[in-house]
Amino acid sequence: MKKIVIIALVALLATPTMAQKFITRTGYIQFFSSTAVEDIEAKNNQVSAIFDQSSNELVVQMPIRGFKFEKALMQEHFNENYMESEEFPKSTFNGKVTGFDASKKGVQKVVFTGKLTIHGVTKEVKEEGTAEMKDGKLMLDAKFMVKPVDYDIKTPSVVADNIAKIIEVTMDLDLSLKK
Amino acid sequence: MKNLFFILAFLVPVSLLAQTNLLDELNEETEEETVYTRATFKGTRIVNSQSVETVDKGVLQFMISHRFGELSDGPRELWGLDNSQVRLALNYGITDWLQVGIGRTSTDKTFDGSLKFKLLRQSSGKRYMPVSIVGFTSINYNSQAALEGSLLEEEPQARISYAHQLIVARKFNSRLSLQVAPMVVHRNVVQTREQDNDIFVVALGGRYKLTNRLALNVDFIPMLNQNTRLVEGIEEEYLNSLSVGVDIETGGHVFQLHVTNSRGMYERAFATETFSSWTDGDLYFGFNISRVFTLVKPKEFDESTSSIQVL
């Protein structure tokens, strides 16, 4: 009898927990390059992300063609010449969020650690950000710097003064419970 | 107790497997999108012929085209450089699929007005379309002063001609794009009774990207029915236009350098009135410069405070 109870308990424990997963397909990422010659800004509203509460894993993916620029020609050059988006259509972050407690209210400081893949090049990153559980939605925000040269993105000497060596990236994701 | 350990050992890995590959789960959820092909060509013209590209919404394109005299004129004429013809043009994107343009060529003092509209866009992904198709229609007006007794004086409608074209293009990969574009050029008035008022041509064009910013272009326009002209009472056939050039792209400018046997820079002139021959070496060097200005910002940037930057 006791054995059956123990086995039953273990079986229950071992059932994969229906872990809370949060998802969005309309996340926002923007990047900003500032030089003496000009400022360049691009916005992407088609970022998708999924967060697994049980493992704290976070995957963020964005289509490069989703970045919108003020100048259409700049957008075209960004895709054709710099990001080569036909060959590398998406950028991905695959990692973990640490320091997050879903039960706490308010904005919490968290750390995003993992692999960031841009233009086919993957690098380990560790960036600070914030997380907040608000009205059943998970809000993840971060602001960090990226160097195009780290990801093999080449700037021709002709426009070297127009594009910053370090680009500021802002991430604003509102994830809802995945049903 | 040993049995319990065994059961636990098997059950724990199962729960881990269920959580791996979050990326796949995300991709499952995300719907496949249609990806529309962009930048089939670097500019709105291949060399002479219209390309399948139109100017983006809210963007004004300014284009200066130069066509010099014959290279065979030799060093005295600086290989034709002394004898330059200019076409100035402005093209504006009313919407992403409709472009309006005006231009003026110094030869014949001809004005041209045009509309270029997208009918189909090449796409992959959710919706597959193998080609991009664009329509082009233009009217030319010869504003030269009419000499006494000339055709222009007798029949003023002779000043006007039209060109209508259907452009079908495919971007095969990031390097190669090809285009087939049948066109009809209509002249209100022609020289002789035997000549056709409508000349049909098929513009065949292509570009091969050598580097991200350098492309090689070829533009060949065979006539389907022959156009002729009277030279001292004798009917002479016009020749097919053939041009070879390179596109150099820098920031906001596209420079096009080319060699062609066509003296003209608007549709009727280059497609149906080419009199120089490649085999005789009667070629013209030319270059186009086009520059774009964003006049109307996309709505996402309405609140942006940055002024219009001229690169």
Can you describe what's shown?
The complex is a heterodimer of chains A (about 180) and B (about 300). By secondary structure, chain A is mostly beta strands. In chain A, about 15% of the residues lie in helices and about 55% in strands. Chain A has two helices and nine strands, in the order αββββαβββββ. Chain A has an eight-stranded antiparallel beta barrel with strand order 1-2-3-5-6-7-8-9. In chain A, strand 6 and strand 7 (about 120-135) form a beta hairpin. The two termini of chain A are about 40 Å apart. The model of chain A has no long low-confidence stretch (mean pLDDT about 90). Chain B contains four helices and 16 strands. Helices cover about 10% and strands about 45% of the residues of chain B. Chain B has helices at about 1-15, 20-30, 150-155, 265-270, and strands at about 35, 60-70, 85-95, 100-105, 110-120, 125, 130-140, 160-170, 175-185, 200-210, 215-220, 230, 235, 240-250, 255-260, 285-295. Chain B is mainly β and about 300 residues long. Mean pLDDT of chain B is about 90; it is low at about 15-20 and about 305-310. In chain B, the strands form three sheets. Chain B has a twelve-stranded antiparallel beta barrel with strand order 2-3-4-5-7-8-9-10-11-14-15-16. Chain B has a two-stranded antiparallel sheet with strand order 1-6. The radius of gyration of chain B is 27 Å and the shape is elongated. Chains A and B meet through helix 1, strand 1, strand 2, strand 3 and helix 2 of A and helix 1 and helix 2 of B.
